[in-house]
Amino acid sequence: MAARALLGEIKKRAVSCPAFRGHYTFRHGSTLVVAEHEGGVIKPPSLSALAAATCLPDPDSSVSVLLAGSGPSLHQAASHAASSYPSISKVLVADSDKFKNPLAEPWAKLVHLVQHSGGYSHIFAAANSFGKNIMPRVAALLDVSPITDVTGISDSNTFVRPIYAGNALCTVRYTGASPCILTIRSTSFPALQKSVDSNEASISQVDLSTLDEDLGRSTYISQSSQGDERPDLGNARVVVTGGRALKSAENFKLIEALAEKLGAAVGATRAAVDAGYVPNDLQVGQTGKIVAPELYMAFGVSGAIQHLAGMRDSKVIVAVNNDADAPIFQVADYGLVGDLFEVIPELLEKLPEKK
């Protein structure tokens, strides 16, 4: 009995004393979701991370969302999150110009600070450029090993993630110290939908008075966007992708014209990007963006495993290629062996105009 009582006291101190954190794995606790926001709302990849956080089986776990930045948009996003998603129990707001841009150093220091004050058992973020930039540095600061690109959650410590360019799935059991840091493949977890019946969560300001000021290892320079009305590639319902077979940037305009008529996003293979047909932010694949639209149309795409890793979760895959043995036909729901320079003009002619 004395030994059991002593063990209980050690566990209590491990939870309450920052010096002991990292040496005791919490069996129950709360979850932190590090989220992006834009235009006063949480961005869809972060809503997918939030949906993943709700998959943890621990009934006693609560979910907090961390939002950082400056200006009215930040507070609008916090209010929207607190009132729209019943799974959120608390919204943490870090209001400072340091977080105006998603630089790894200040954001990682912020998450480190919030973790030591909150003692979370799990920290979630989307496995997009935002999460991939910040979470490895967070893991290093907390001296834990992150689990990246998670596609499935079995229990609080067991997760599924792809390996070998998505050709195999690996089940990983986390046995390290708290917190368990996860980045989530957003295409595997549908974004959480807002609810009108939500009970409003509390909103708390993060105390930044102890935040380390030595953050100047990187500098924000600029940000550019496509500036058109096409859907975002990562969240589009329809994606039209072109490969190296288009032969030139001028010919790639056929893909753009078809996408315009379908109200779709434009994608490209790495070969097309490397050849200079389109910018690299349109690349789909293992080293590009991971997409899972309702309809994925591939023109002149051979189907290399690196490309398939980025689109194999699409609901319906349509492939057009003049090579009947192209690997893309092995994953396509509908395939047409033909010349894309004949097929696309015919589609443009027969498809109705976008309303």
Short recap of the structure:
One of its GO terms (molecular function) is flavin adenine dinucleotide binding. Belongs to the ETF alpha-subunit/FixB family. With 355 residues, the chain is α/β, with parallel strands linked by helices.
Salient structural properties:
355 residues, alpha/beta, Rossmann fold, 2 domains, 7-stranded parallel sheet, 5-stranded parallel sheet, 9 helices, 27% helix, 23% strand, elongated, disordered N terminus, flavoprotein, ETF_asu_C
How is this structure best described in words?
The structure is a single chain. Helices cover 27% and strands 23% of the residues. It is built from 9 helices and 17 strands. It is of the alpha/beta class and 355 residues long. Strands 7-11-6-1-4-5-12 form a 7-stranded parallel beta sheet, with helices on both faces. A 5-stranded parallel beta sheet has the order 14-13-15-16-17. The chain has 2 domains: 9-205, Rossmann fold (3-Layer(aba) Sandwich), CATH 3.40.50; 238-350, TPP-binding domain (Rossmann fold, 3-Layer(aba) Sandwich). The longest helix has 15 residues, at 2-16. Helix 4 packs across helix 5 and helix 6 runs parallel beside helix 9. Keywords: Electron transport, FAD, Flavoprotein, Mitochondrion, Transit peptide, Transport. FAD binds at residues 244, 269-270, 283-287, 300-307, 321. One of its GO terms (molecular function) is electron transfer activity. Heterodimer of an alpha and a beta subunit. It is found in: Mitochondrion matrix.
